[in-house]
Each structure stands twice: as structure tokens, then as C-alpha cells.
Design a protein that fits this description.
- This protein is an alpha/beta fold.
- The chain is built from 21 helices and 31 strands.
- The chain has an eight-stranded mixed beta sheet with strand order 12-11-8-6-7-14-15-24, with helices on both faces. The chain has a seven-stranded mixed beta sheet with strand order 5-4-17-16-18-19-20, sandwiched between helices. A five-stranded antiparallel beta sheet has the order 22-21-23-25-26.
- The model has no long low-confidence stretch (mean pLDDT 95).
- Bound molecules: ligand 6R9.
- The site of ligand 6R9 has 24 residues, from helix 12, strand 25 and strand 26.
- Ligand 6R9 binds next to helix 12, strand 25 and strand 26.
């Protein structure tokens, strides 16, 4: 069995690591016995304008209150840039690798300071003030990081929207947080294809009358429309302003950013992170989990539109004065050795990616890897979904040459940073397990009734106490925050994940227990996809579930009931897939659509997803109790007409 396969800490990692096994145990013990003391010390890893005297003020009951370092003031951008300048003005902060392999550049900390200063002044010139929200809809170019840091510098709250989202999704997010300014680019470039970012913004802004300025970075030089009075070119505005901009003193609990993420119900939630605790946590976890040392070249392949890009491309690495690589492209363009060529080209030491990418590259065989040396790699990381033991073993052998430890890092948009992960010098690894909690993190596994389970067990994963990187609220809806995360198991943070703990105390995440699908490491709420389908004029009803998918982890399986009189055709099937792509974005496009004359419902009208999930998983022999269905015949029809996969 794979969980009996244990990989020792390689001697080379143990020798250089910040923390060995005994030190981890001691650190963990202290962090539990004196939690505020532990985080009080860690808080000093960042520079404070006014040092905090209070560390922790948390109440998980009632209305729910979470505050860390709440009488301190700091500036996040100053921590990521200014405080490094004395020593690192000439050190590379960002290595940018373009979609086209011939394009790359290095941006030093000194240059970063100027770029961010200018972007800050451009925002100010557009009237952006402390506390205002700014939406960033950008490709993976350094200006995306400048924009985030510029917001942080002047105290504005950024909301980065992934460039793969549709105009409607973008508009919803702009309106929800009431952004008046949007930063975008003319077009993005991914895998040789252009992404019409500005055109998408134009379409979105038709629904956002309050947006007064759109700042456009020139990336491809493609033709775009500029609406006079609203749209401006970034390079023209930047030339008019000074590169110096003072950093605003922010309270530790002032908001830093909002990031929208899918939940089990309703529209995406604006997850709100604040300044002090988030930065301390991003910096702490980046240093310890990746065993970051001075001079390391570090590459996280995520997009800045996801939380991984926020914490582990921008804030964590830059807070630590690291060199962080930002990649515009995709793993298989121009060919499937692209990741490995980039590792060789920039002598990457630490490489952090997602299981879906590993599985896709694994499918191409070892030849594309063998073209590259990969001798600079020291540590590999994984994030986004459970990594299958097969993929883990391939990553370890073929990419890591049996030499590099793998850190399988479990965390969420809501957690701000990694909570469960090996520490490379301390933790033996088991393929498929995220292993043990980081210091200061107190996981608990509970059964359906909320009883805390001890020892080896399986149940729902909760966290018993706060950590500084935890989200503080759902933007504009604190009640939803308390209900979503703290009501299922009162007094605990409920993650939405199922989890097993083995006899060695290792955690094995089994996937979501709610109606959230994890497609290629991206969270999709079933309700969102269903709403998009039902918005189509020919659709009467839709139910969406996940099913196992070789590359994506989970694929999207949609059951669709058409309106009376509408004929089910292949064309309509294709049209619905395109429709969802347009409504939400390409990541939400259903992989399979089954026509369903009826859906299995309880007598009270609730769709029984359990049954739909079983059919989609091809486990229709074990549908369980169907006696509560209003019309059991519906199920027979669905089984008979299930989609081939
Ligand atoms: C960082 C990120 C969070 C959900 C989470 C879980 C799944 C993430 C994982 C993992 C198993 C890992 N997940 N990392 N499952 N092992 N190492 O992905 O945030 O997009 O909010 O997704 O992803 O189900 O609850 P987010």
C-alpha cells in the first residue's frame, strides 16, 4: 500500500535545512502550548512602523472575530521592497519568463521599487485612496505584481480576477466589491494564443457604470478600443509621474486584498485578507516549507489570479527578499519540455506546481524531461488537490531524480497560506499525504456529529484555533463568513475537506465533502455552473457533479433537462459547452453533458446529488437508498443513458 511507502528526509536536505525533525517537534509543542507567544515572535519577521503589543484576539463563536497584531501598523509593499533595498537593490526580485521562449527579463529590487512607485502614483492620480478597491485583470506579466504591490503601497485593496474568467464573471466581481478602477492589459499571451483581456473588460464594464478609470498595460500591441475619458495607457500615465511614492501606514487589520472563490452555494465569495497577519504567515510559510535560503531561485507556476500566486509568487517570496520567477506561458508550449527548459535556463532550485500539470506532463513520457538537466533543482512542491501516489512517485523519480524532497502543501484561499505540509529537513514523506501540520496549526478531524476523533480516523477536517494568515471575513457579508465556516462545527473552522489521519499522525486529504468540484486545482461551485446552464434559453433544469478525470483530477459532468419541445442534438450540446465557457470562463466548461428527461428528486424537491455523482462515477450498481425519490424511474433512465468516458 502506498501509505506504507515512506521516504526519509534526504541527508543533503537535513544538513542544510532550517528545521530538523527534533526542532520541528519542539517548535510545534511550543506553538500549541503558547500560541500567542509563538506568533508574537514570528511577527517580528516583518518590519512594523508601530510595533504591536497585542498578538492575538480570536473568538470563533457567535459573530466570529479574528484579529492578529491588531495595534501594530506596517506597510506590506514596504516590507516586500523598501526594506530590502539597502542590501538587495541590485539583486533580482522577479525573473520574468515570457510565453515565447526567446523573451525573458530580470527585474531587480531597485527596479521593482521604481515600477511600483510609478504604478502607485498613477493610481493616486486616478483618485484611488486608502481603502478603495481596485480590480486587476492581467496576464502573467510583471505589471500584475506591480499593480498588486502598488495597491498595497497606497492602502488600496486589490481584487485580482483570473484572466481566464469571462466578462460576466469579471463584472460580477467588480460590482460586488465596488471597484471604481480596473487595471488590465491589451491582450494576454498563453501557449501562442492571444487572450482578449481589454475586449473582455469592455464587455464587463457595460454592466459596471461606476468604473471611472481603466488602466491598460501594453503587452502585445494588439488593436484595442480606448474609451475616451475612461481608458488610459499605463505607459503614458507612468511617464507623467514620479517613481517615488510614500508607503501608507496601515493597521495590521486593514484589508490587503479580496479574492473571489467558489463555495458550495450561491455566488463566489469575496475572501478578505488583511495586512499584518497575512504577510507574517506568507513569509513564515514560504521560508520554512520551501526551506528558502538566501540566493535560491524559486519558481511557483501558479497564476497570480489564484491565491497560490498571491502568497507564493508575490507576497511570501518578496517579503523574504527572494528571487521569484513569474511564467507567462503554459507547460506544453512550444512543447512538453517547457517547464524543464525554464528550470535549466534560470537554474531554478525550488519548483512548486500542481498535480494536474504533473499528470499532464507524465502522460507525455520521460523523453521531454530527459532533454533537460534539472541539476539545479533541490526541492519540489505540489498544491491544489490531492496528488495521486503515481504522480508523486513520477515527480520524485523523473523530475527530482530521487534527490529532491517533495512538499505536498495543503491549504485554501481562506487559509492565506500553507497549513499542512512536510518541512523538507524534518518530515519523512508518504506519497499522497500532506503529512503534518505546520507549527501553530491545530487540525482536528470530526465526525458528522461534530465529535472530535482521536488517533487513526477519517472524517471532516477542521482547524481548532486561528493562525495569522486566516481570512477575516467574506467581503460585505460577515454573516455568510460565520455561517459558512463556523456553524457546521461550532467553535472550529470547517475546511470543507474530508480527511484521514493514519497511525503516524499523517493527514491524507480525501477531497471536498461539499458541492465544490476541484477541476485542475481550481475550485468550481456546482451551483455556479448550474446557474449558467439554466440561463440558456433552451434549458429547463441542470444538475452538475464532479467525476474522476485522469488529467484534471475532477471533470464536470452536467445533467441537463431541456425545455419542452426542444430537441436534444449534438449541436445543442456543443452550444451549451460554449455557453458556459462564455458565461463563466473556460475552466467551467462541462466535460460531459447528459440529457436528462428528469432529475432524481426527493419529495420535497431536493436534487439527490449523491445518486447523480454515483452515475457519473460509473458506480451505478451501488446507488444506495432510492426509496425517498419522488419518481424512482428517473434513475433507470439516467443509468441507461449515461455518458461514455
Ligand atoms: C491553495 C488552493 C482549496 C482546496 C482545498 C482542497 C484542495 C489544495 C491540496 C488540496 C489535497 C493538497 N487542495 N491543496 N487537496 N492536497 N495539497 O488550492 O486554494 O483554490 O482555495 O482550493 O483545494 O480541497 O479545500 P483553493
Amino acid at each position: 500500500m502506498s501509505d506504507q511507502q515512506v521516504f526519509d528526509v534526504p541527508a543533503s536536505s537535513a544538513a542544510r535545512a532550517l528545521v530538523n525533525a527534533a526542532q520541528y517537534d519542539a517548535m510545534y509543542k511550543k506553538s500549541v502550548e503558547d500560541n500567542a507567544g509563538f506568533w508574537g515572535e514570528q511577527g517580528r519577521r516583518v518590519d512594523w512602523i508601530k510595533p504591536y503589543t497585542q498578538v492575538k484576539d480570536v473568538d470563533y463563536t457567535g459573530a466570529v472575530r479574528i484579529r492578529w497584531y491588531h495595534d501594530g501598523t506596517l506597510n506590506v509593499a514596504a516590507n516586500c521592497i523598501d526594506r530590502h533595498l539597502a542590501k538587495r537593490a541590485k539583486q533580482t526580485a522577479i525573473i520574468w519568463e515570457g510565453d515565447d521562449p526567446s523573451e525573458s527579463k530580470h527585474i531587480t529590487y531597485g527596479e521593482l521599487a521604481e515600477h511600483v512607485g510609478r504604478m502607485s502614483n498613477v493610481l493616486k492620480a486616478k483618485g484611488v485612496k486608502k481603502g478603495d478597491r481596485v480590480t486587476i485583470y492581467m496576464p502573467m506579466i510583471p505589471e500584475a505584481a506591480y499593480a498588486m504591490l502598488a495597491c498595497a503601497r497606497i492602502g488600496a485593496v486589490h481584487s485580482v480576477v483570473f484572466g481566464g474568467f469571462s466578462p460576466d464573471s469579471l463584472a460580477g466581481r467588480i460590482v460586488d466589491c465596488d471597484s471604481r478602477v480596473v487595471i488590465t492589459a491589451d491582450e494576454g499571451l498563453r501557449g501562442g494564443k492571444k487572450v482578449p483581456l481589454k475586449a473582455n473588460v469592455d464587455a464587463a464594464l457595460k454592466q459596471c457604470p461606476d468604473v471611472s478609470a481603466c488602466i491598460v498595460v501594453k503587452r502585445t500591441g494588439g488593436n484595442v478600443e480606448m474609451k475616451s475619458g475612461r481608458d488610459v495607457w499605463y505607459h503614458e500615465e507612468a511617464a507623467k509621474v514620479s517613481p517615488d511614492c510614500p508607503a501608507e501606514a496601515m493597521n495590521a487589520e486593514d484589508p490587503l486584498f479580496i479574492l473571489y472563490t467558489s463555495g458550495s452555494t450561491g455566488k463566489p465569495k469575496g475572501v478578505l485578507h488583511t495586512s499584518g497577519g497575512y504577510l507574517v504567515y506568507a513569509s513564515f510559510t514560504h521560508q520554512y516549507v520551501f526551506d528558502y535560503h538566501e540566493g535560491d531561485i524559486y519558481w511557483c507556476t501558479a497564476d497570480v489570479g489564484w491565491v497560490t500566486g498571491h502568497s507564493y509568487i508575490v507576497y511570501g517570496p518578496l517579503a523574504n527578499g527572494a528571487t521569484t520567477l513569474m511564467f507567462e506561458g503554459v507547460p506544453n508550449y512550444p512543447d512538453s519540455s517547457r517547464f524543464w527548459q525554464v528550470c535549466d535556463k534560470h537554474k531554478v532550485n525550488i519548483f512548486y506546481t500542481a498535480p494536474t500539470a504533473i499528470r499532464a506532463l507524465m502522460r507525455e513520457g520521460e523523453a521531454p524531461v530527459q532533454k533537460c538537466k534539472l541539476d539545479s533543482l533541490r526541492l519540489l512542491g505540489s498544491v491544489g488537490e490531492p496528488i495521486n501516489p503515481e504522480a508523486w512517485l513520477w515527480y520524485h523519480r523523473v523530475i527530482g531524480k530521487n534527490r529532491c524532497p517533495i512538499v505536498d502543501t495543503w491549504w485554501q484561499t481562506e487559509t492565506g497560506g500553507i497549513l499542512i505540509s512536510p518541512l523538507p529537513g524534518a518530515t519523512k514523506t508518504k506519497p499522497g499525504s500532506a503529512t503534518k501540520p505546520l507549527p501553530g496549526v491545530m487540525p482536528q478531524i470530526v465526525d458528522a456529529n461534530g465529535n472530535v476523533l482521536e488517533g487513526a480516523c477519517e472524517g471532516n477536517l477542521c482547524i481548532a484555533d486561528s493562525w495569522p494568515g486566516q481570512m477575516r471575513t467574506v467581503y460585505g457579508d460577515h454573516k455568510r463568513f460565520a455561517e459558512t465556516y463556523f456553524s457546521a462545527y461550532p467553535g472550529k473552522y470547517f475546511t470543507g475537506d474530508g480527511c484521514r489521519r493514519d497511525a503516524d499522525g499523517y493527514y491524507w486529504i480525501t477531497g471536498r465533502v461539499d458541492d465544490v468540484i476541484n477541476v485542475s486545482g481550481h475550485r468550481m461551485g456546482t451551483a455556479e455552473v448550474e446557474s449558467a446552464l439554466v440561463a440558456h434559453p433552451q434549458v429547463a433544469e441542470a444538475a452538475v457533479v464532479g467525476y474522476p478525470h485522469d488529467i484534471k483530477g475532477q471533470g464536470i459532468y452536467a445533467y441537463v433537462t431541456l425545455k419542452t419541445g426542444v430537441t436534444a442534438t449534438e449541436e445543442l450540446r456543443k452550444e451549451l459547452v460554449l455557453w458556459v465557457r462564455k458565461e463563466i470562463g473556460p475552466i467551467a466548461a462541462p466535460d460531459l453533458i447528459q440529457w436528462a428527461p428528469g432529475l432524481p428528486k426527493t419529495r420535497s424537491g431536493k436534487i439527490m446529488r449523491r445518486i447523480l455523482r454515483k452515475i457519473a462515477e460509473n458506480e451505478y450498481g451501488a446507488l444506495g437508498d432510492t426509496s425517498t425519490l419522488a419518481d424512482p424511474n428517473v434513475v433507470t433512465d439516467l443509468v441507461d443513458n449515461r455518458m461514455n468516458r
